[in-house]
């Protein structure tokens, strides 16, 4: 892979001419190449044949902006994704790359800059910095109105500025550090700047290789004077900091940063890269499209053990912000290898620990923790205050009891869900009841007009001793692993997401695992497990119509 690429020879072989090494730059050659419509002056470097060659546009073409040509003139012709190339035939890889680059340039010659402006954030970020380590971190949302900003900066030597308009947006700083820095009156703390959202102002980004003059900047800043008259004084300050945003597609905004410093009688403009720390933006980066239904859901998690803790974490990562965590148990060392909580939570309450853990891991949540047991917690008021109640206690007698209370006290749109694992990796189950619809946990225990002791969907035959006992009579636990819980939790989270958009039914879902461990432990599987339950959907449809006494009231 790392043999030197004979780039000059390869260029000649693919039909380039006027090939010259660029002085003081290793393995960088300028050349001419003919496209469909134009002759292009380009240069190329190719140090790593595991990647495509880098192709640059020559200065003489950089008298105007072109789509997919970065500030440092590299042509963005392919992101390498979905492309197969082999380093055994470098000549054809080079030819193909040149053809792709030329196509980008030919297409971009039309003068239509829509694509250029849609990539403006990347273009501005690519400006080679005079002050290379400085970075503006946006903790505030990029809204449509201009306003004053404050920056937190840890020390004089750190050039990472955390910009906010209100203190609580700036989640990167502990209360202690915040106080310490403020008390010291560190000069880096309390830096002021302005957020200026461009609307239809004409933006004239610096041409490749160039920088803005102070006058270029003033044109933009002055257009905000009607809204922010104080800018008139601010532009005379020896240090000025700005974050501009500009409209992008789908109502989103991009941003770039500017630092101005007075150098003798003149002002120098520095382009500063911007990174984004606001929750909405970060959630979008995780491909989350959070609809209003998710944001407004108030979820209660009864049972914060293995499955419950995993579902809670998955829900938060799916955009659910409002959770009540209920569990009377203490987090013990026995739980460690199948729970989301780290080891230093051992000895504390599970519910309080999970709340603290999620708050420290994610942004801007509204969490409550209760150490009540589920029965005590489930008052009519508490039930009415939640859109979704998840029962992850592993105790179906209790969960059926709570289901009755729920059905008596809930109103349309509310949901209740039970989740549980089968032992020894055999599988897991999820049943979600929606108020006003048929189908509930009890349905799984109801057949031919009478209640059963075991759910019909059980994957093992009744009356087997599966609780393994490692510590004597007092210490029995159900044998399932973290991955069993993870799979059940994932099924539960997906089912919740589906139920939010299809309100006209209740759900029963399962996953079926491998039987090796069950065989090894001499546990007999049920016919439901052995058959793979192919008729599940049909069965559940019928089930919800033959009716149990709890959900058909
Ligand atoms: Zn591009
Ligand atoms: Zn039912």
From TrEMBL:
Domain THIF-type NAD/FAD binding fold positions: 292-446
Cellular component terms, GO, for this chain's entry? cytoplasm
Database matches in Pfam families: ThiF
> What would be an example GO MF term here?
ubiquitin-like modifier activating enzyme activity
Write down the SUPFAM superfamilies for this protein, in alphabetical order. Activating enzymes of the ubiquitin-like proteins (SSF69572)
State the protein's name: THIF-type NAD/FAD binding fold domain-containing protein
Q: Which organism is it from?
A: Syntrophotalea acetylenivorans
């Amino acid at each position: 892979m790392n043999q030197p690429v004979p780039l000059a020879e390869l260029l000649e072989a693919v039909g380039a001419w006027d090939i010259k090494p660029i002085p003081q730059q290793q393995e960088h050659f300028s050349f001419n190449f003919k496209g469909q419509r134009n002759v292009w002056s380009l240069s190329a470097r190719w140090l790593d044949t595991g990647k495509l060659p880098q192709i640059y546009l020559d200065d003489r073409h950089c008298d105007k902006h072109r789509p997919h040509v970065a500030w440092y003139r590299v042509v963005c012709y392919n992101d390498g994704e979905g492309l197969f190339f082999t380093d055994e035939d470098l000549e054809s890889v080079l030819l193909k790359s040149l053809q792709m680059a030329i196509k980008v340039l030919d297409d971009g010659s039309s003068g239509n800059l829509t694509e250029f402006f849609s990539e403006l954030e990347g273009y501005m970020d690519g400006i080679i910095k005079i002050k290379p380590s400085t970075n503006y971190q946006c903790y505030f949302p990029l809204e449509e109105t201009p306003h004053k900003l404050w920056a937190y900066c840890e020390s004089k030597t750190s050039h990472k500025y955390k910009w906010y308009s209100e203190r609580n947006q700036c989640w990167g700083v502990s209360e202690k550090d915040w106080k310490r820095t403020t008390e010291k009156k560190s000069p880096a703390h309390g830096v002021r700047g302005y957020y200026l959202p461009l609307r239809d102002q004409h933006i004239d980004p610096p041409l490749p290789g160039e920088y803005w003059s102070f006058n270029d900047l003033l044109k933009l800043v002055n257009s905000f004077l009607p809204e922010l008259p104080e800018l008139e004084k601010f532009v005379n300050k020896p240090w000025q900091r700005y974050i501009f945003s500009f409209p992008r597609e789908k109502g989103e905004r991009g941003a770039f940063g500017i630092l101005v410093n007075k150098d003798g009688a003149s002002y120098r403009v520095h382009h500063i890269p911007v990174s984004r720390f606001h929750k909405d933006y970060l959630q979008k980066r995780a491909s989350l499209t959070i609809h209003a239904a998710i944001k407004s859901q108030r979820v209660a998690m009864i049972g914060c053990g293995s499955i419950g803790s995993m579902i809670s974490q998955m829900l938060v990562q799916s955009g659910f912000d409002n959770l009540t965590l209920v569990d009377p148990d203490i987090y013990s060392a026995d739980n460690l290898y199948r729970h989301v909580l780290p080891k230093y939570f051992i000895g504390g309450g599970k519910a309080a620990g999970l709340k603290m853990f999620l708050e420290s891991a994610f942004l801007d949540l509204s969490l409550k923790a209760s150490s009540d047991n589920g029965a005590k917690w489930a008052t009519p008021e508490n039930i009415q205050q939640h859109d979704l109640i998840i029962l992850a206690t592993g105790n179906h007698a209790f969960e059926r009891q709570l289901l009755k209370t729920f059905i008596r006290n809930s109103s349309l749109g509310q949901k209740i869900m039970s989740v549980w694992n089968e032992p020894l990796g055999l599988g897991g189950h999820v049943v979600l009841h929606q108020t006003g619809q048929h189908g509930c946990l009890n349905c799984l225990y109801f057949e031919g007009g009478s209640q059963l002791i075991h759910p019909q969907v059980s994957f093992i035959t009744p009356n087997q001793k599966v609780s393994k006992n490692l510590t004597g009579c007092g210490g029995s636990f159900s044998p399932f692993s973290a991955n069993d819980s993870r799979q059940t939790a994932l099924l539960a989270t997906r089912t919740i997401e589906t139920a939010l958009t299809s309100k006209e039914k209740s759900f029963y879902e399962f996953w079926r695992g491998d039987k090796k461990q069950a065989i090894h432990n001499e546990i007999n599987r049920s016919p439901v497990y052995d058959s793979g339950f192919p008729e599940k959907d049909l069965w559940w449809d019928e089930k919800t119509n033959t009716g149990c006494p709890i959900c058909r009231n």
